[in-house]
Amino acid sequence: MITLAELRNEYARGSLDEHDVEPDPIRQFQLWFQQALDAQVPEPNAMTLATVDEQGQPSARIVLVKGADERGFVFFTNYESRKGHDLAINPRASLLFYWIELERQVRIEGTIEKTSAQESDAYFASRPLGSRIGAWASEQSREIAGRTVLEEREQAFAERFGDNPPRPPQWGGYRVVPARMEFWQGRPSRLHDRIVYTRNADASWQISRLSP
Fold first, then answer.
1. Which helix (H) or strand (E) holds 173?
2. Cβ neighbours around 121 below 10 Å, total
3. What's the CA gap between 104 and 32, in Å, rounded?
4. Is there a contact between 74 and 115 (Cβ–Cβ < 8 Å)?
5. What is the spatial distance between Cα 135 and Cα 158, in angstroms, rounded to a whole number?
6. Cα–Cα distance measured from residue 212 to residue 206, given in angstroms and rounded to the nearest whole number
7. 10-210 has which CATH code?
8. Rounded CA gap, 211 and 114, in Å?
């Protein structure tokens, strides 16, 4: 029987050189993201979001990126959830994309800002009806007595709003404004390629290679 310590893979699908990457990390991310789409990676928009609470306790969960441009990386959630509470206290976050089929990961660190009400409204309106009702039904991260509580709230809000529920006031978007982005490409013998972009005071980017 194989033990956990014996589980390992050898990475050999690609390489990454600091002289070949895009000068802007957002463009480099968009290039890699398109390649993940082309490779039909399952849920390439899934990312780990890490936050820290007032005691310094980190927590992480999977969310879906819904926008990635020169302004940053956008996701949507309940502002009164655990992650929302953390971000209100400490408006910094870390993101991680891991595309195992391509042996790649992207790490992003930066500050947090809320998206505009207009941006949140537009995305909310594009969601399936069930998801829009669900945003009202779920008091995210709060303890409930059982699933029937959730189902009863869902039914009540469906009857209240019908086919056109408005965006809940406690629901909207966050944007992670990157200050540091690292692109990791798996290589043989654990000598992986790690290229990091660090934002300078003038908003330009410095590119460096890190030892694995």
1. strand 171-185
2. 15
3. 9
4. yes
5. 11
6. 19
7. 2.30.110.10
8. 35
Q: In this structure, how many other beta carbons lie within 10 angstroms of the beta carbon of residue 14?
A: 13
**Whole-model pTM?**
0.94
Segment 9-13 shows an average pLDDT of 90
Across the strands, what pairs with 126? Answer: none
- Measured CA to CA, the distance from residue 164 to residue 51 in angstroms comes to 33
Q: How many Cβ atoms are within 10 Å of 120's Cβ, its own excluded?
A: 20
What pLDDT shows up at residue 2?
84
Q: Which residues contact 69 (CB under 8 A, 6 or more apart)?
A: 26
Average pLDDT over residues 53-71: 97
Residues recognised as catalytic: 190
Residue whose entry in the numeric block shows the structure tokens 């086919």: 163
List, in order, residues 6 or more apart from 195 with CB less than 8 Å away. Answer: 16, 17, 18, 21, 182, 183, 207, 208, 209, 210
Nearest to 159 by CA among 127, 193, 133: 133
Beta carbons within 8 Å of 161's beta carbon, 6+ residues apart: 133, 136
Domain spans, the chain? 10-210
Query: Does 35 have pLDDT greater than 90?
Result: yes
**What band does 6 get if pLDDT is binned at 50, 70 and 90?**
confident
What sign for the dihedral angle of Cα 29, 35, 37, 41?
A: negative
For 148-178, the pLDDT digits (tens) are 999 999 999 999 999 999 999 999 999 999 9
Euclidean distance between CA atoms 82 and 19, whole angstroms: 41
